[in-house]
Every structure is written in C-alpha cells, then in structure tokens.
Write a structure and sequence with these properties.
Elements (H helix, E strand, L loop, with lengths): L2 H19 L2 H4 L6 H22 L5 H7 L4 H29 L1 H18 L5 H18 L2 H12 L7 H30 L6 H20 L13 H14 L1 H28 L8 H23 L6 H15 L2 H8 L12 H31 L5 H21 L6 H25 L8 H11 L6
Family: Belongs to the major facilitator superfamily. Phosphate:H(+) symporter (TC 2.A.1.9) family.
Pfam families: MFS_5
Subcellular location: Cell membrane
C-alpha cells in the first residue's frame, strides 16, 4: 500500500490524540457528578453496541447480495426497499416510541435488526427483501428512539442541560468513529482471515445487538413523550406537523438535517468511483478506516466547541456547512484543473489524492455535524413528540436517497457531487437564518398547540 495513505492516516491520528489527550481540562470545563458519569457511560456502552451491529453490516451488504448472484439492478431494488421501508413503516414504528415508550422502541430496534441479520442466510430474493424492510424500520428507530430516550432521561434525572453535549460528542466519537474502525477490521478478519464467508459479519452484528438489548433490559428505565390514551397515531402525526409548521426553528432544523444527511448518503455511493475512475487499485477498507478517523477528529473538535459558551452551535455550524460544501467541489475542480489519466489500474492518481484529502475534510465535518445537530434537536424539538418529529425529518431524506439510488447511473459523477455541494451551501444559508432567530421565543408552545387542536376537534379531547 502506498505511503500516501499511511501519512494521511497517521497525521489525523496524531491530531485526534492531541485533542483527546492534550488540554482535556479545557474541553471538560464544567464539573459533572458521579451519577451523571455513570449514566453517560451506560448510554455510550449501549450506543456503541448498537452502532457495532450497524457498522459490521454496512461493508458487506452489497458484496453478500452479489455472491448470491443478483444483478446490480436487483441489488439496487433491495437498497431502495430499505430506504422506502424506513420512510413508510419506520416513521410509524418510530413515532410509536413517544406513546408506547422509548425503551420499548430501543428493544424493538434490537429485535428487528437481529431478524434482518438472520434473513441474510437465505439466498431467496423475497426473504432478502423482507430483511431489507426490517432493516429500514430498524434504521429509523436507531436514529430517533435512542436519542429521544437519552434526552428525556437526562432531564428526568435532573442533570444540567449543558452536560448533554458531553454525552452526544463522546457517543459519536466512540460509536461513529472508534467502533466503526474496529468493526471494519473485525469484519475483514471474519471474512478474509477466518474465511467464514460474507454472512459472518451479520451473525456477529446480531450477537452485539443481543448483548446491547440485555444491557437495556437490565439497566434502563422507561420514559414517554405523550402517553395520552386518547391520542392515536394520526393525531400524533398531525401534532408533529403542527409543531413543524408553527415553529420556524423546528422547520429549519428539519430542512438542514435532510440536506446534510442526503448529501452524506449520496457521498457514500460516490467516493469509490471518484477515487478510482480507471479501476485504480485502492485499499477500500483502509480508506474507510481513514474516513472514520476523520469523523472522530470532527467529533472531538465539536466536543471542545460545545463545552464553551462561544461560539454557539448555531453559529459555528454555518462554517461547517460551507467547508463541507467546498470539500465536495474538489472532484469537479480536479476534473478541469488536473489532466485526466487514461491508464487502467495502478495506484491512486494525483487527482484522486487531492480528492481523498477533500473527502477526509468532509468526514471531519460529518463528525462535527452529528453531536451538534443532536444538541440543537434537544433545544428546539418538544419533548412530547420528539421521536415523531425526528422521524418526520427523515421522510424527505429517504425520498431523496431513493431517487439518487434509482438514477445513480443517469448523471455524471461530477453532477452528483455538484448537487451535493449546492445542498450543503443551502444548508449553511438556512443555518444562518436559524442562528438569527435562535434567541426568539417560540411562537407557540406545545401545550398551546394541543389546546388549539382540541378546540378544533373536540372528539379527540380526553
């Protein structure tokens, strides 16, 4: 493997180590309690096990389907089914968490994803399709129920609101960074070193999910959003829509999240052909680990930013979105500024090396984004419908990803990157607007909205 990869990886590892080990007292400026530290560590353990179950599967889903003999079109339909399921069924199941309980929703995630892993043993297309549908439901729960449980439990136990940023940043650092790297290496060990086949990472994922479920069952207490017996699912959806429409901050937050995550998921599909347009021999696993290290760097940097009163998260995220937009312009710029190589195979090109540095920058922005968006959601989304609103945010995201998957071969790769760059720049504009109105009081609080709905529809009154 070329020295370039080791230099990039080593440089970022050194920066991450410096951020984590050096000046730690500055990062953790406020003093926390022992009870909070135990609570935080318990959540990070569970979150890491959940993410291990997810990260182990990612690199091998496409590969497993291809070993079963399915075409690219068939595999594309399976992926579309997963995102479509997340949008339709996942939104419904995720929204039930507010009424039926967030702990139960987290347990449902474990069971659903374990069942999805089991279906991977079958080469039958219909069974694999069922697995993708179950996986889509699980994904919605992963990105709503756990965060909703954490925020509600944090305040129920009387912890300081600013301590939430510590849990968010550390969970992303460990779960989306360190665990992702270890999961990638462990999956590679199972498949290549032990020759257990491409289904073995899914079996390992099921084991981690089962362990995490056992920890949840034994250590977590239940919490709810609005457990009112008279409130059916349709009323919950209506209330969430009213909350988004009535509070510009919530609407802006949803749009920002959809724009960024849509660009992020599109990037997942595009980085391989961008770095190897002529079938260059690139170390996919090592590059993936490098991206995850860049994400760790971003989350570590975010922890230092959120521990301070200035700049506020609404302000510095404007810069993060602009930087991420610029980083995804590099594939377009290198197309015009760097002479293309027509040599098949070989190592990574000069243009590819420049793009790799830009992609690492984008992944660092992803690392800043996750804990920061969690922090903003905890501030602006009403507790009574947290899971419901968070799943509403994922609807446009899933629609967008389905469209991209369906048309992935219809546009040149530069057009796709240009589209993502524009979306990220729009996100920075919306973030600027959010920062401008962040200090304004809400137009209506949740109680007032519920009272208005009750007056408009007395049949739903308790």
């Amino acid at each position: 493997m070329e020295l370039f990869y080791y230099v990039v990886f080593g440089a970022m590892a050194a920066v991450v180590a410096a951020l984590e080990l050096g000046g730690k007292s500055n990062k953790d400026r406020f003093t926390t309690s022992q009870a909070f530290n135990s609570f935080k560590n318990n959540y990070i353990l569970v979150y890491s096990l959940m993410m291990a179950g997810d990260w182990l599967q990612g690199p091998y889903v496409y590969y497993l389907y291809s070993t079963y003999g399915f075409s690219k079109g068939d595999i594309g339909q399976l992926f579309i089914a997963g995102f479509g399921s997340s949008m339709l069924f996942g939104t419904i199941v995720g929204s039930l968490a507010d009424k039926q309980g967030r702990k139960r929703a987290c347990i449902t995630y474990c069971i659903t994803y374990i069942l999805s892993c089991i279906t991977k043993h079958s080469p039958q297309y219909k069974i694999l399709m069922v697995g993708r549908i179950l996986g889509g439901i699980a994904t919605s729960l992963l990105f709503s129920a756990f965060e909703s449980w954490l925020v509600a439990e944090h305040f129920k136990r009387g912890f300081e609101s600013q301590w939430l940023s510590l849990t968010f940043s550390k969970a992303i650092f460990v779960g989306n960074g360190l665990v992702a790297i270890i999961a990638g290496l462990f999956g590679n060990f199972l498949v290549d070193s032990l020759n257990l086949g491409p289904v073995s990472p899914f079996d390992a994922a099921a084991c981690f999910l089962a362990i995490g479920m056992a920890v949840i069952l034994s250590t977590w207490s239940e919490n709810y959003g609005d457990p009112s017996e008279s409130k059916d699912l349709l009323t919950q959806f209506k209330g969430a829509a009213v909350a988004i429409a009535s509070d510009e901050k919530i609407a802006l937050l949803g749009a920002i999240q959809s724009l960024f995550e849509g660009s992020m998921y599109t990037f997942v599909f595009l980085w391989t052909p961008a770095l190897s347009p002529n079938d260059e021999d690139i170390p996919h696993g090592f590059i993936f680990a490098t991206f995850m290290l860049a994400s760790m760097l971003g989350s570590s940097f975010a922890a230092r930013l959120m521990a301070k009163n200035s700049p506020k998260v609404e302000s510095y995220m404007q810069i993060v979105f602009v930087v991420s937009s610029a980083s995804l312009l590099l594939p377009i710029l290198t197309t015009f500024l760097v002479p293309p190589s027509n040599v098949e195979g070989g190592g990574i090109s000069f243009a590819g090396s420049i793009q790799l540095l830009g992609f690492c920058t984008f992944e660092a922005c992803v690392g800043v984004f996750w804990p920061s968006i969690m922090k903003m959601r905890s501030q602006y989304i009403p507790e009574e419908a947290r899971s419901t609103i968070m799943n509403f945010f994922r609807i446009p995201l899933n629609i967008f990803v389905c469209i991209v998957l369906y048309n992935v071969n219809a546009f040149p790769i530069t057009v796709m990157f240009g589209m993502c760059s524009i979306f990220l720049f729009v996100a920075s504009i919306l973030q600027r607007r959010l920062a401008a109105i962040a200090e304004k009081p809400k137009a209506q609080d949740w109680v007032a909205m519920k009272e208005r709905d009750t007056e408009a529809d007395p049949l739903n009154a308790p």
